[in-house]
Amino acid sequence: MLSFLLVLCMALSVCAEYEILWSDDFSFDTRQSSQVDLKCDDLISYSTGWAEGSGREVEVTASGVTSGDTFVIAELYDDNLTMSNAWDYFLNNADLSEEYILTHTTKCESHVIDTETVRVRLSSSLQDEGTFSGDFNLDTVSTALNATLTLLTTDDIVYDTAWAEGEDKVIRVSAISSETIPQMYTVFESQVDENGTFRWDYLSEEVPSTVAYTLCYEIKNEAGTETYATGSANPVIRILPEPAAGFMMLALVCASALVKRYELN
Amino acid sequence: MRIVILTLLVCLFSANVFSATVKSVTCHQCWPWSGKVDIGYVLESSANDPVFEVKFYGKAGEGESFLLSDLKGDGSAGIVLGSGSKRAVWDPSGTYPGTQLSDFKIALAAEEVTSQAKYIVLDLNAYTFSYASSTNAATVSVGSDSKKSQIWFRRIEPGTYQMSAGDDWSYFDPSWTSKGTETSHDVQLTRGFYIGIFEVTEAQFSKIDSETASESCAPKLRIRYDQIRGSEIGATWPYKTDRRVDSDSFLGTLRSKTGGGVIIDLPTEGQWELACRSRGDGTFIGAGCWNDGSPYDSADGQTDNNLDKLAWYKMNSSNRAHEVGTKRPSLMGLYDMHGNAWEWCIDFFDYRYGLSNAQLSRTTIDPVGFFPTVSSAKNSRRCGAYGNLPVDCRTSRRTSPGNGTTYADYGFRLALIQP
């Protein structure tokens, strides 16, 4: 009896437990419709159900059959519709003699899970033109030249943490080039480090080593909405790139013998 | 008899503790796009990180039901990680060309397989997932296919562990300059995940990337971060934690072949280190030990007798990468975590993990790494390669190459993440 029950029990425990649920009846039609004539004030409708939940995307584009011109008509990502005036923009700029292919792409976490197309012709044009505006902020930076210090990209940079103590502060250190049109590179940005040290190799591959740079710093709150301190450091520095692999050992010996520490402030 | 009944009850309750619930299977065709059918459904389970095996059936009128093919989206590859609302698309034009049907039904069949699915296998021929169970991770039997035409992933349970557990620096060169990148702090991962048991091999890579051809079981090397994830949307982690990638990247190509329901990606640093330190019993290997639990064992910091069994590193590799999985695995059955190739992680690198001192003193939950503000920020890679000494092969070892750069020893390992 015991054996029978145990065998029964084990059989039950390994038995597949598929739960099956059927949908209601629905209809579909696989007969292809080749073309749709649209007026410019027609609305394009698409299912937003697909865009619900994290990582869901819907994109609609229009591509000219002969010209190849492509317009992004709508991008819907996690229910946030962007480029909402793009349909008008397309209508105002499309060639009315052209035939376009509308492509509706559904993605999930970058998987393209469905792409559907329809050919359309436009029969009239809207008059209103969209307007575009934008705000730009240009930072002014100091590029004063002084004595030059050469740093190995593997050197540590040490900075005074006195003004950076406390929580919720972020320090950003930028390198401003001395070129005619100064270029700014953010070489370090992080929560305040009580040790006041960061590694200099952030710049190793991205910036030219033939020009001089001024280091600038700023301390902000975490949200970046409030600035506690800004300044620049002297002297100007020059950067040596990280040594090539074949000379790594030699360079490391040199670096350890000639440790240069650079004090901001 | 009481004991028998009690035993039976215990067995019945212990079996199928987690069971799948399927809700709201809805189907419709959208005008005017095509004849394709959108399928929505909801999966539920009482498990924390459930794994579902799913199948789709169709039936016209009172006809026989049949297994649907030509599916894309969640579950189309056979496995779904995580509960919640799911979506798939069925293209009926292959089965019913030029047809109009008004009484069709679709069924969703789901089984919750979390407890069995210790390993999930991705078939690189059919691009479908299946699960393989094993109670002893270290002795799981895998053939050469697992290094060429399959990718095996091991389930890693969530947990709290000490990230960058402080190693004894007197064991290594005390002047070693990268100590500052390792600050011990507690990390909690609240969700399980799956991680590749091997580094991605050249053969696996060439199966997915049609521009390469190789049968080699050595790790795919000289790979850039932006090759794996892309340089545009794929570079937006951690601002976009949905893990989107560029469609023309390696992962974009792979994902387009496998469909949804499972996210294939690089692991975070937190996931990588949890997997490396995990013993599989809810405890974790701390400082001073390799990932099979053996202690550091070296007289000179160069030849380590225990590392020699686990990893291809400077003192045994003849300065070249070797076939993956030819050294002893970790306690979780993961191979080559300590050597052979440096492995990219998804996180951007920061010496302090992008955390303030106050944050480092608390337990960090599900860390996503540094939030970079410039394009020159660099991603993390972990834990040594064939040319490195033991100090670079430690679990805590982390560094930061540029995400547009690569060298001869940069490889990667994939993870399966719940959407």
Describe it.
The complex is a heterodimer of chains A (265) and B (419). Chain A is 12% helix and 40% strand. Chain A is built from three helices and 17 strands. In chain A, a hairpin with a 2-residue loop joins strand 7 (99-108) and strand 8. Chain B folds into two domains: 8-112, Immunoglobulin-like (Sandwich), CATH 2.60.40; 119-417, Alpha-Beta Complex (paralog of FGE (formylglycine-generating enzyme)). Chain B has a six-stranded antiparallel β-sheet with strand order 10-9-11-14-21-15. A four-stranded antiparallel β-sheet of chain B has the order 1-2-7-5, with no helix packed on it. In chain B, strands 3, 4, 6 and 8 form a four-stranded antiparallel β-sheet that branches. Chain B is elongated, with a radius of gyration of 23 Å. Chain B starts with a helix and ends with a strand. The relative contact order of chain B is 0.14. Classes of the chains: A mainly beta (265), B alpha+beta (419). At the A-B interface, helix 1, strand 1, strand 2, strand 7 and strand 8 of A face helix 1, strand 1, strand 2, strand 3 and strand 7 of B.
